[in-house]
Design goal:
It is a single chain. 28% of the residues lie in helices and 19% in strands. The chain has 470 residues and is an alpha/beta fold. Strands 4-5-6-7-9-11-13-14 form an 8-stranded parallel beta sheet. It has a 4-stranded parallel beta sheet with strand order 15-16-17-18. Helix 13 links the parallel strand 16 and strand 17.
Length: 470
């Protein structure tokens, strides 16, 4: 029998990791073992900076964020806390409001980043109004805490360890407020975290734009409108405390009166401005001296090298002459168009036909005249516009007869009304927003017919499968 002897001399062995991205080496001797492990290189989809850049492209796809992205892992969930939409709606209605519904609202408000509030309390005497204001005080405190890096990091770490991570506190980013009276003056100091503000004023009011921009330094979108009155916008507009450019990107003003020099001063400090819509501007009591000059404003925009995505300019009582030229001069690549009309008039229709069919947003601002054709031009445009994504025409009419593909609806027409009722299929299958009125030509007694409802919602569900805002 032969014996085999093995050498016990020192032997140095190194192993190469199978993963080339891992810098791990091992050295073994007869006396000791030393292991030096280098930090592995993270994958691209684990780096927060890269992920945030990717997720920013999904801001226009909230359903993807809600239904897919945040469910992948905890890291993706926490990175998208500021992108997830958590909306609360409160309408002041003494008949339906209760202490229970208010308690539910105030308990959810710390997690919400979007609030729609329709107030009917101009004197701030409603107990519900006072409780909501008290709840908004917490938003102000959370914003101040977010400015302290140490406190913000501690709060974030605490939320990650929480057993109920879905209830993490956030900041209010969007406010849509319908009000009259003193409410906005009381709310404004609590809104420092806002990035989007829409004010719908019932009646007339005075809004100090400089105070709004100073109180909301992160504001990206500002919309002021009144449907029944006039909004006064006194000087100054630019906050005196502002020494850096403002981040404002969208400015929409409707039924307002102001000095154009203030608007031009504001444009100087908003180099990122992309949407400028001046709707139904009101003149002062002296009709001989107009407050507004579109030519001067466009020259000012050109001098500042500001190229807009969407633009609208109209003065109360004036016709829509040269509206196409106004848009193309200030926003030559605009895909968002707004017109003062109930229906697409022949002039407006000719404008849309002259440009490539790439309009993604169409808004009709009713000037107060009835529509004799019941939205025929609009219906025909929708049947030929596959690229449209958003239609905002809350005063325009769509006939139920034009949705009745199978001819199930055949009521007697109103006396003296002869219009084209031919049904058609809208081509805008990717439409996400639809604001419109639905009429029928029959008696008002059949408005609640179940057949009518089935035609309407059956048509919408089949023709517009991507609809999100109805």
């Amino acid at each position: 029998m032969g014996l085999k002897f093995f050498s016990l001399s020192k032997k140095k062995t190194s192993t190469t990791p199978s993963n080339p991205s891992s810098a791990t080496t091992t050295t073994t001797t007869n006396s000791n073992t030393r292991v030096a492990v280098g930090k592995p290189t993270p994958r691209a989809l684990q780096v927060p900076a890269i992920l945030n850049r990717i997720f920013d492209h999904l801001l226009d796809e909230p359903e993807s964020l809600h239904q897919s992205v945040i469910l992948v892992c905890r890291q993706w969930y926490y990175l998208n806390q500021s992108r997830i939409t958590r909306e609360i709606i409160w309408v002041d209605d003494p008949k339906s409001n209760s202490s229970k519904s208010l308690d539910k609202l105030t308990s959810r408000l710390p997690q919400a980043n979007r609030l729609q509030w329709q107030s009917n309390d101009p004197q701030l005497k409603n107990k519900y109004t006072l409780k909501i204001l008290q709840a908004l005080e917490g938003n102000k405190d959370r914003y101040q805490q977010s400015l302290n890096p140490a406190a913000a990091a501690a709060a974030k770490a605490s939320s990650k360890k929480s057993k109920t991570p879905l209830k993490t506190d956030g900041l209010l980013r969007h406010l849509d407020l319908t009000y009259s009276g003193l409410l906005f003056l009381k709310v404004l100091p609590l809104l420092r975290s806002l990035t989007s503000l829409r004010l719908q004023i019932v009646g007339s009011d005075t809004v100090r734009l400089g105070a709004v921009l100073a109180a909301c330094p992160n504001l990206l979108s500002l919309q002021l409108e009144s449907t029944t009155g006039i909004i006064q916008l006194p000087s100054p507009w630019v906050p005196q405390s502002s020494s850096t450019p403002l981040p404002l990107q969208t400015l929409i003003l409707e039924n307002v009166i102001f000095s154009q020099s203030e608007l031009e001063a504001l444009v100087k400090v908003t180099p990122r401005l992309k949407v400028l819509q001046l709707r139904n501007l009101r003149e002062n009591t002296n009709p001989s001296a107009s407050l507004y000059s579109w030519y001067t404003l466009t020259q000012h925009l050109r001098a500042l090298h500001i190229s807009l995505w969407s633009v609208h300019f109209s003065i109360f009582g004036e016709t829509m002459e040269d509206v196409r030229e106004k848009v193309l001069v200030a926003a030559p690549r605009s895909r968002e168009w707004a017109f003062r009309s109930y229906d697409l008039t022949p002039i407006v229709t000719s404008y849309l036909r002259e440009i490539p069919n790439v309009v993604t947003t169409l808004e009709l601002l009713a000037p107060g005249r009835p529509d004799p054709n019941f939205g025929l031009e609009l219906h025909q445009y929708l049947c030929a516009s596959p690229h449209l994504l958003h239609l905002k025409a809350s005063q325009s009419v769509c006939l139920i007869e034009r949705m009745d593909i199978h001819r199930r609806w055949s009521p007697s027409s109103r006396a003296g009304i002869l219009v084209d009722r031919q049904a058609g299929i809208w081509a805008c299958r990717n439409l996400k927003t639809l604001h419109i009125r639905v009429h029928n030509l029959g008696s008002s007694a059949i408005q609640d017919s179940p057949v009518r409802s089935r035609i309407l919602f059956g048509y919408i569900s089949r023709v517009l499968p991507e609809l999100r805002d109805l």
